[in-house]
Design goal:
5 helices; Arc Repressor Mutant, subunit A; 91 residues; globular; alpha+beta; 3-stranded antiparallel β-sheet
Length: 91
């Protein structure tokens, strides 16, 4: 879980996640939304992959990245176990 939080701490990686929320994308598609080098985008993608936040799948000569929904479900479950979010005191 610690790797997940470290990966989410970076604003660029959070922006990548927001893009992937809309649709699966290649590294080139993602890079078009940033003013940083393609090797930097690859580094961010690798960190997100290591944290299991995103998945990659080769389709022909391209690798498409997508969100790993399972990790987000686990995070939501973990947060809910911490306490009563959104409820009234005493619920």
């Amino acid at each position: 879980m610690n790797e997940t939080f470290k990966a989410l701490a970076d604003p660029t990686r959070r922006q990548i996640i927001a893009l992937l929320k809309e649709r699966d994308m290649t590294a080139g598609d993602i890079a078009e939304h940033f003013n940083i080098s393609k090797p930097s985008i690859s580094h961010h993608l690798n960190l997100l992959k290591q944290a299991n936040i995103i998945l990659d799948q080769r389709q022909g000569q391209f690798i498409y990245y997508s969100l790993n929904a399972t990790v987000f479900q686990e995070l939501i479950s973990w947060f809910m176990q911490l306490g009563n979010f959104g409820g009234k005191e005493g619920d």
